[in-house]
Design goal:
Phage portal protein; Portal_protein_SPP1_Gp6-like; about 20% strand; five-stranded antiparallel sheet; alpha+beta
């Protein structure tokens, strides 16, 4: 089913069909879920809704401890995968063109923004276009602004971006060949501009979801419940410490002083008791060991679910670790990074397919054979024993089992392989000229 058939069957050929598409119940529920997660990241947690309670005849507002640990966990996942730039490999001619596009379009920073959107909200979109300066650029469309339109084969047939600015609603409808912009500035929806669409529909990034093949799932859903319980445990424990540590005065036997009940100002005062009577303060003992056990269990479960090494959160002391030991500590983080890499890789390969098409309009052709050689190399931000790494590279080089180019690619001190090779060739430090076939985004 194409877009025309979709509009005819579902919306009876209405010219403003996209309003109903954006306003559908399912789409509004999805957007509400995104807003809920934004509120959580801004610090509006369930613990803040904890009701007041009565204590000693008075209404007490409980302590409400907010832990913003979720931000730290998401930042770790993003930085572990993308702190080092994504490396493009393949035909040298093609890589040179793609690297130029990447630098002028600042795609490295956009990769990080896309990953953050994926981790926080489960989906994100990117539209590739040629900007007013003639550079190939892209626009990141947040999850709460983008509405993909799918047919019954789960194929995207259109895309609608909608947002409100200064009380005015704006809609951008992307189809395979046009980009149409609408607004209700005059009180009714109207078309304000229409452009040719050279790159077709936006790229739709999304994470894995057991319930849907076209909707993503936020990483926050995996550990918000654990954080809620950690906040509740801390808040309740602090309340108990403040309220019940002083204890309740208890008198047994006959009190000889006048008045009804024990005076509230008994602290610092005196009481006259009958022979055999007793007076004491009864208080709850705080079980520190039980608290620590519960909190540690919740915290460890949080680290396990989020695939965060304890050492990266200052939960473990380490020293003098080998390369193998470091890899073992970060093995779970590598598994999570590999999963996130897959989500990014799918969208980024589609991005370069669109960039290749746009380069044709700049009279730059990339053949099928050249494009087939394209690959993406993600270098995880894993701590490493640099001395051990360099010693291994040196040994392989002496055994003539490693080229100079590969040595520099794996060196922890080389950031731009192509530039380094050019400098070495100019200085005459290498016996032969090294052909570089790699680029950094």
């Amino acid at each position: 089913m194409n877009l025309e058939q979709y509009i005819k069957v579902k919306y009876n050929n209405k010219h403003d069909w996209f309003l109903e598409e954006v306003g559908s119940v399912a789409n509004q529920q999805r957007m509400a879920d995104v807003e809920k997660k934004k509120d959580y990241l801004m610090g509006y947690h369930n613990i803040l809704n904890l009701p007041s309670f009565m204590y000693n005849g008075e209404s007490i507002t409980p302590r409400k401890i907010v832990l913003n640990t979720a931000k730290t966990l998401l930042q770790f996942q993003a930085q572990f995968l993308l702190k080092n730039p994504v490396v493009l490999t393949g035909s040298e001619v093609m890589i040179d063109q793609f690297n130029k596009v990447n630098k002028l379009g600042k795609f490295n920073g956009k990769n990080m923004r896309i990953l953050n959107e994926l981790l926080k909200f489960g989906s994100c979109s990117e539209y590739i276009f040629i900007n007013k300066n003639g550079y190939i650029d892209s626009k990141i469309i947040p999850s709460d602004e983008g509405t993909p339109v799918w047919n019954h084969h789960n194929e995207m047939i259109a895309f609608v971006q909608s947002y409100v600015f200064d009380g005015i609603s704006y809609y951008t409808v992307y189809t395979d060949d046009t980009v149409q912009e609408y607004t209700n500035e005059d009180g009714s929806i109207r078309l304000v501009s229409q452009h040719a669409n050279l790159s077709e529909l936006p790229i739709y990034y999304h994470t894995h979801n057991e319930y849907s093949e076209v909707e993503g799932r936020s990483a926050l859903d995996d550990f918000v419940g654990l954080l809620d319980n950690m906040e509740l445990l801390l808040s309740k424990t602090i309340d108990n410490t403040y309220m019940y540590s002083a204890g309740i005065p208890v008198v047994t036997g006959q009190r000889l002083t006048g008045g009804a009940g024990i005076p509230k100002e008994v602290s610092g005062g005196g009481l006259s008791l009958d022979d055999g009577s007793t007076f004491e303060f009864v208080s709850n003992d705080i079980d520190v060991e039980a608290f620590e056990t519960l909190y540690d269990k919740l915290n460890q479960s949080l680290l396990d679910v989020s695939a965060t090494p304890a050492v990266s959160m200052n939960k473990t002391d380490i020293s003098n670790l080998s390369e193998v030991s470091i890899k073992l500590l970060f093995s779970l983080a590598e598994v999570k990074a590999s999963e996130n890499e897959g989500y990014l890789r799918d969208g980024m390969m589609e991005r370069y397919d669109k960039i290749r098409k746009l380069l044709i309009y700049k009279n730059i052709l990339i053949s099928d054979d050249e494009y087939a050689s394209l690959d993406l190399l993600f270098k995880y931000n894993q701590p490493q024993n640099e001395t051990e790494t360099i010693a291994n590279l040196k040994t392989l080089r002496e055994l003539q089992a490693l080229s100079m180019e590969s040595l520099m690619e794996h060196s922890p001190y080389t950031t731009d392989v192509k530039q380094e090779v050019s400098r070495m060739n100019l200085e005459g430090l290498s016996g032969t000229v090294i052909d570089v076939d790699v680029g950094v985004e």
